[in-house]
Amino acid sequence: MGNRTSDTAAGKGATAGAATPETLWAALRDVVDPEIPTVSVVEMGMVNRVDVDADGQVAVEILPTFSGCPALDVIKGNVRDRLMREPGVDAVTVNFVFDPIWSSDRITPEGQDKLRGFGIAPAPISRGRPLKVLQGQPVACPFCGSGRTVMDNLFGPTPCRSIYRCLDCRNPFERFKAL
Length: 179
Fold this sequence. Notes:
By secondary structure, the chain is α+β, with helices and mostly antiparallel strands. Helices cover 20% and strands 28% of the residues.
């Protein structure tokens, strides 16, 4: 495995019912990305693995979109807090792992739709294509759908987004970078 950082929360999980990986994955759909509150960490493809043992000990692996993301502590706390509410969960350990590395290809189709609805153009599916090729592709405006857009700034409000402008509806918008 790659580098890890972890944090553990222990408490009194409900005694009735046993937590399963499936119920925990479903619960994690409630945990939103703090910077884009319409999309969950599951839809962003950040949840790599969820394990639970018979004693209610849960281990979650999260793939950060960027290693220096300022929202990591918030994500860790929100994952832990949400899973601690599940029946049969007694303790939650959240590990940030960097192997495999997160890629924008991990964003689910539902997550891509939610990004568009929030005014962020999703990254193109990269599948190993060179970044120069991906950056040369047209970017559809999330507001009007026009392909007549231009990048105003490679550096957006966070390291994972760039600033674009639509030449038709004239709205500025962000685009998730292909990583």
